[in-house]
Specification:
Distance between the termini: 21 Å
Number of strands: 15
Radius of gyration: 20 Å
Order of helices and strands: EHHEEEEEEEEHEHEEHEEEH
CATH superfamily of the largest domain: Pseudouridine synthase I, catalytic domain, N-terminal subdomain
Bound molecules: uracil
Helix content: 10-25%
Number of helices: 6
CATH topology of the largest domain: Alpha-Beta Plaits
Length: 239
């Protein structure tokens, strides 16, 4: 017997946290009864129904999507905007690992493996995420040093970042550069540049750990190779 949220996570329904929300929302039935208590235990031999669908144990799968701008990174959107799930029509019930903003493009990983997602999304994450960024104004060395050392964003202090490939467009008065960060807090890159007086005009995630967009066009997805999954496991913190 295991906690219901753990079973849902293992079956690839959602991350453990999301599964807890689903239970509290009354979306989960065990042997014909709606269960809303988080401590409830069950086993795979029980009949578990989520959103009207019977739970099946699926193989673990891992994908990368080249997310285009103009899609939200949730599975459902309250404003009926297009979601990243519309772009990855696979038979397994996969969910995105973390988020990219509506107007951000680039690498977005998907899985039905809750343990893998949790390890990669651990708050003290160590997996590098590389972004190419276009910002307003001409970026100064001092600002670069500040961001590289880590800045206080009010609710948290950013870990050291790396900034490189800085190119100025003096005519348009903007700068294009690359930044590598290890955390993935909400709007983190935008907030970091905002902190030093620059507006992010364009943002693209070029790399997540060892996974890049090589050979992919916007909207494409592909399964991760086994060595990529193993490498990501090794890069993440096992919790
Ligand atoms: N940082 C942001 O501000 N937005 C993203 O989409 C990703 C990182």
């Amino acid at each position: 017997m295991e906690r219901l949220q753990k079973i849902l996570q293992r079956a690839g329904v959602a991350s453990r946290r999301k599964a807890e929300e689903m239970i509290l929302e009354g979306r989960v039935q065990v042997n014909g009864e709606i269960v809303t208590a988080l401590g409830t235990k069950a086993s795979f031999s029980d009949e578990i129904i989520v959103d009207g669908k019977k739970l099946k144990v699926e193989d673990k799968v891992y994908y990368v999507l080249y997310k285009p701008e103009g899609y939200v990174s949730t599975t459902k959107d309250e404003f009926n905007r297009l979601t990243v799930s519309d772009l990855i029509p696979v038979k397994e019930r996969v969910f995105p690992i973390g988020r990219l903003d509506y107007d951000t493009s680039g690498v977005l990983l998907f899985t039905n493996d809750g343990d893998f997602a949790n390890a990669l999304m651990h708050p003290t994450g160590v997996v590098e995420k590389e972004y190419s960024v276009k910002i307003s104004g001409l970026f100064r060395k001092e600002s670069s040093k500040l961001l590289e050392r880590g800045v206080d964003l009010g609710d948290f202090h950013t870990q050291p970042a790396k900034i490189f490939n800085v190119e100025y467009d003096k005519q348009k008065q903007n700068t294009i550069l690359s930044i590598v960060i290890t955390e993935g807090k909400y709007h983190q890159v935008k907030r970091m540049f905002d902190m030093v007086g620059h507006k992010v005009l364009k943002l693209k995630r070029e790399r997540y750990g060892c996974v890049t967009l090589k050979g992919m066009n916007k909207g494409d997805y592909r399964p991760l190779k086994i060595h990529e999954v193993k490498k990501l496991w090794n890069l993440s913190i096992n919790i």
